[in-house]
């Protein structure tokens, strides 16, 4: 485990990110407390890419429009909600 200050992190970001990706625990200490630097999973990356996609924005815009029109949706299951999203 490596404990570093914010100043050390700013000066050597690549080094500490590489250490975290290699499985070493990197703890950042500051007056606000402590935080651990951890890489995100591939699943998190896929979700982030989806949230930034055009299809997600179209879905969100449709949901807002329907809400403003007084429409609401009830799904009996996650599969039903997924089917609705896939039909956009």
List keywords for this structure.
single chain; 88 residues; alpha+beta; 2 domains; three-stranded mixed β-sheet; 3 strands; 16% strand; elongated
What does the model show?
The protein is α+β, with helices and mostly antiparallel strands. It folds into 2 domains: 2-37; 42-86, no CATH class. It contains 5 helices and 3 strands, in the order E-H-H-E-E-H-H-H. A 3-stranded mixed β-sheet has the order 1-2-3. The longest helix has 15 residues, at 54-68. The chain is elongated. The mean pLDDT is 90.
Summarize the amount of helix as a percent range: 55-70%
The backbone outline, from C-alpha atoms, is elongated
Mean pLDDT: 90
How many strand segments?
Answer: 3
Radius of gyration: 21 Å
Task: Please report the distance between the alpha carbons of the first and last residues.
Answer: 47 Å
The DSSP helix count reads: 5
Strand composition percent: 15-25%
Order of helices and strands: EHHEEHHH
Oligomer: single chain
Helix vs. strand class: alpha+beta
Main-sheet strand order equals 1-2-3
Task: Outline the biggest β-sheet.
Answer: 3 strands, mixed
Low-confidence stretches: none
How many discrete structural domains?
Answer: 2
